[in-house]
Amino acid sequence: MLPGPNALHTDYISESLLSSFMSGKFKGTLVGEALIGEGPEVAHIDLVIGPSGSAVEQAFVSALASPATGHTPLLAVLEPNLPAKPSTLMVNKVTIKNAGQAVLIFGPAQAAVAKAVMDCVSEGTIPADQADDIFIIVSVFIEWDAKDKKKVYDYNHRATKLALERAVQGLPKAQDVVARKDSAKHPFA
To answer: What is the total count of domains within the chain?
Structure first.
């Protein structure tokens, strides 16, 4: 059984991950995912976390330097000139086709992702003393029909925070996924 979205359960954290934190050095690449909300403002977050010198840092720099039409990587910021730490890059999953959609990703989604990262630092999910040595890439979904800025912020904040917590906890575990493989129901399938 998976723990609830707001619980940190050390019995679910892998031994190697736990020793990385205990030794004071964040190591390896972590992967997290979460879907929160409903309607066109639904938030689906996929993310990776990695230390300086890792493939995550390399992908971070590469993506930031390679914008494409409709896909502009951007730093997660709480407000202009106040980026999240660890450095967090947002990439959109859906091509931005209009100004309304751009405003949602460059406004409430951007602030929500930054706030979730900083909440995880302040709560100890991400060690504050390692924040300058970690890179995060967050893939954000903003549907073309989304309109409600408050829902976009709320859903993306909650989904990013949950994805970060799951990544750090190493959740879900393979045995949990295997146990649910035949009963799982994808909401969009």
So the answer is: 1
Query: Does 79 fall in a domain?
Result: yes
Q: Which value, in Å, is the radius of gyration of the alpha carbons in the chain? A: 16
Triad 45, 61, 73: Cα angle to 5°: 45
pLDDT of residue 106: 95
Q: Per the domain annotation, does 34 fall within a domain?
A: yes
Asked if the structure places residue 21 within a domain, the reply is no
Q: For residue 183, is it within any domain? A: no
CATH of the domain at 84: 3.30.230.60
Per-residue pLDDT of 132-172, as tens digits, reads 999 999 999 999 999 999 999 999 999 999 999 999 999 99
Domain that holds residue 53: 30-171
Q: What percent of the chain has pLDDT over 90?
A: 82
CB under 8 A, 24+ apart: contacts of 179-188: 187/35
pTM above 0.85, yes or no: yes
Does the structure show a pLDDT above 80 at 92? yes
Which residues have a Cβ under 8 Å from the Cβ of 156 and sit 6 or more positions away? 36, 43, 45, 108, 109, 112, 113, 116, 140
Cα–Cα dist 59/146, whole Å: 28
Could you list the active site residues?
A: 44
